From TrEMBL:
Descriptive protein name: Hypoxanthine phosphoribosyltransferase
Family matches, as Gene3D superfamilies: 3.40.50.2020
Subcellular localization, as worded in the UniProt entry: Cytoplasm
Gene Ontology CC terms, in alphabetical order: cytosol
Catalytic activity annotation: GMP + diphosphate = guanine + 5-phospho-alpha-D-ribose 1-diphosphate; IMP + diphosphate = hypoxanthine + 5-phospho-alpha-D-ribose 1-diphosphate
Co-factor requirement: Mg(2+)
A Pfam family reported for this protein in Swiss-Prot or TrEMBL: Pribosyltran
Family (UniProt): Belongs to the purine/pyrimidine phosphoribosyltransferase family.
InterPro entries hit by this protein: HGPRT, Hxn_phspho_trans, PRTase-like, PRTase_dom
Length: 178
C-alpha cells in the first residue's frame, strides 16, 4: 500500500502523540461532565477508538453515519444521514468526532441537525483540518493537524473505500485516482 503514497504526511507515532495531546486537553475541558462522544462513520472509526481510550472521563458513546464523497475525491455537497443516534441528546454535552473537516458540508449538516435536539453543549473534534477548501462557516474546537489541500488517506480516511486501515496519514499519488 505504501507504494500508492506520494508522501507520508504523519507517521503512526506522530498521530498517536497528537491524539494523546488532544485527549488530555478534552479531559481537562470536560472535567466534572459526562460527555456523549459521537463518532461520524465511517471515517472517524480509528481516530474515535484511539481518542476515547485516552479520555479519563465518565462518558457514553454513539455513532452517526453520513456520507457525501462516494467513490471520488470531491464532495457531492449532498450529505445523507445514513445512521442516527440511539438516544435523545437533550441536555447532554456532545462531542462530535470526525476524521477530517474539509469543505464543511458534512459537519455543517450534522451540527444543524444535532443543535435542533437541544444538547447542553456541542463541540467538534477533528483529526485533520483542511481549511483551504472550506465552503461553510464552520471551525472545529479541537484539531489534530491542519493540512494543505491534498487528498489524504489512512487512519480511517479512504479513497473509494480503500486505505482506511493504514496506520499513518499519507498523500495519495494522483496516478491512483486520475
Ligand atoms: O468537510 P467535508 O467536505 O464534508 O468532508 C469531510 C467528510 O468526508 C468524508 O466522509 P465521506 O463522505 O467520504 O464518508 P466516510 O466517512 O464513510 O468515508 C470524511 O470522513 C468526512 O466525514
Ligand atoms: O483528503 C481526504 N481524504 C479522504 N476523504 C476526504 C474527505 N474530504 N477530504 C478527504
Ligand atoms: Mg466521513
Amino acid at each position: 500500500m505504501e507504494q500508492d503514497m506520494q508522501q507520508i504526511l504523519f507517521t503512526q507515532d506522530q498521530v498517536a502523540a497528537r491524539v494523546q495531546e488532544l485527549a488530555a486537553q478534552i479531559t481537562r475541558d470536560y472535567a466534572g461532565k459526562t460527555p456523549l462522544v459521537v463518532g461520524v462513520l465511517r471515517g472517524s472509526f480509528i481516530f474515535m477508538a484511539d481518542l476515547v481510550r485516552h479520555l479519563d472521563l465518565p462518558l457514553t458513546l454513539d455513532f452517526m453515519a453520513a456520507s457525501s464523497y462516494g467513490a471520488g475525491t470531491t464532495s457531492s455537497g449532498l450529505v445523507n444521514i445514513r445512521l442516527d443516534l440511539h438516544d435523545d441528546i437533550a441536555g447532554r454535552d456532545v462531542l462530535l468526532v470526525e476524521d477530517i473537516l474539509d469543505t464543511g458540508n458534512t459537519l455543517s449538516k450534522l451540527v444543524a441537525e444535532l443543535k435542533g435536539r437541544h444538547p447542553a453543549s456541542l463541540k467538534l473534534c477533528v483529526l485533520l483540518d483542511k481549511p483551504e477548501r472550506r465552503t461553510r462557516p464552520l471551525e472545529a474546537d479541537y484539531v489534530g493537524f491542519t493540512i494543505p489541500d491534498a487528498f489524504v488517506v489512512g487512519c480511517g480516511l479512504d479513497y473509494d473505500q480503500k486505505y482506511r486501515q493504514l496506520p499513518y496519514i499519507g498523500v495519495l499519488k494522483p496516478s491512483v485516482y486520475e
